[in-house]
Amino acid sequence: MSDDTLSGEDRLDKTVIYEVLSSERRRHAIDFLQASENGVEVSDIAEYIAEKETGESPPPKDARKTVYVSLHQTHLPKMDDLDIVNYDTDTKQVTLSDSFRDVAIYMEVVPGTEISWSEYYLGVGLVGMATVFAHIAGAPAISAVPVEYWAVFYLFVVSASAVYQTFTRRSL
Predict the structure, then answer these.
(1) Do 131 and 74 sit in the same domain of this protein?
(2) What is the pTM of this model?
(3) Which of 52, 70, 96, 163 is surrounded by the fewest CB atoms within 10 Å?
(4) Tens digit of each residue's pLDDT (9 = 90 or more) over 148-157
């Protein structure tokens, strides 16, 4: 790995991460590896990507072969050199490396029907503030519960959410 790809404590530079993630095939490969418990074979990744690209299940043989060759010759060696994946060219086995966490931060793509974590926390904060204002205004159902209980409830929601988010990110 060249020295210009690292910054700080052997972390990948943002520019390098963006370049790696600029390839849809590399993003699909990472997605597939994230969903896998153990190492996977290149042929399994190629099958997954070819299916994504063609929209056919199973994908045509020529599509699988094209994807396989590009993974084997270009994408996996590049990610292995950057220590994003561990790629054994002899056994054709691929796993995510421990350094993958540097890339995982940039992988949070939120589908159009879902919300990001920042939007989630904003929503919890706004609902919490609305609850306090409703309590102050004397809203019947809300003012029946002491404001301290509401505060503890929303702090618990934020804390539990942060714990969940922290541990799901660490499992990457």
Answers:
(1) no
(2) 0.60
(3) 163
(4) 999 999 999 9
